[in-house]
Amino acid sequence: xxxxxxxxxxxxxxxxxxxxxxxxxxxxxxxxxxxxxxxxxxxxxxxxxxxxxxxxxxxxxxxxxxxxxxxxxxxxxxxxxxxxxxxxxxxxxxxxxxxxxxxxxxxxxxxxxxxxxxxxxxxxxxxxxxxxxxxxxxxxxxxxxxxxxxxxxxxxxxxxxxxxxxxxxxxxxxxxxxxxxxxxxxxxxxxxxxxxxxxxxxxxxxxxxxxxxxxxxxxxxxxxxxxxxxxxxxxxxx
Length: 238
Known about the structure:
By secondary structure, this protein is an alpha/beta fold.
């Protein structure tokens, strides 16, 4: 049985590659945290401008940014920052690490959260596995490295922000066998409403009503076989 996530922190930074990534599960945990008085900020590496079939990037980017800001507000997040890397071609390496490290220094989190970034992923009861997004893989490893970069004044000495050594934990999303979990039974409806704010995006994914899609995704990402509601994480020291 997973153990509860530690709560001896006050400020978290949730880092994702694209608008809507956070809403595929993690937003339910965010809603629990903000309801408990925690401060949570979002950092998006891209604006998701390559993610809407038939919609040109110059139109999709601002649209998806606005949907993400509305989505964040539903779960109590008022600060959402975009790094403006190009969607679809994130590269694990010094350029991305530098921008992430600077953001970590600006936001000063004690907890850094990011999504699962393994090569493949398998939702419960689904076979075969899906190939994980190249952006998710590149971002996740860069987040892990950027936490250390943010604390070291010599790795990116040109950064204007002062080093931040206050990250206590890094939490990586984990659906199948998480060592830690957040009980999100009180936040399911908020999580559904948060994902549903990505209305234009979801309308292009399926003919099903947006609210139905959102509920299906939240159910898949939070419901355990015994009917509990949880968001799982794999935890690392910062």
